[in-house]
Write a structure and sequence with these properties.
This protein is mainly alpha-helical and 93 residues long. It is built from 1 helix and no strands. The longest helix is centred in the middle third of the chain and has 87 residues. 0% of the residues are buried.
């Protein structure tokens, strides 16, 4: 009859049980991670939609300011040409 050490029989059983528990915990954490990533993806998509709406607003504001800049440039150019004509004639005479 072969005598075996009880520690050599119990140790693999304990390791198998701990490995099984670790595997179950990792599976649960993986599932929770997937759920969390889906929630984060929804939030990011919502933020993306809102940012795109703001981009359209900023594009409109940019277009309006460009038009105002063009108009004011034309007005200033017209005023400066009138001033040049008025004071230019005085110097030539």
């Amino acid at each position: 009859m072969i005598e075996t050490n009880p520690a050599l029989v119990i140790l693999p059983i304990i390791l198998y049980i701990l490995g099984s528990i670790l595997l179950v915990v990792l599976i649960i954490l993986g599932i929770k991670l997937i759920i969390t990533m889906n929630k984060i993806e929804k939030v990011v998509d919502d933020v993306n939609i809102k940012v795109n709406k703001l981009n359209n607003l900023f594009n409109i504001i940019d277009m309006v300011t460009d038009k105002f800049a063009t108009i004011t440039d034309n007005v200033i150019e017209g005023i400066s040409s009138v001033v040049k004509k008025i004071f230019g004639k005085g110097k030539g005479e």
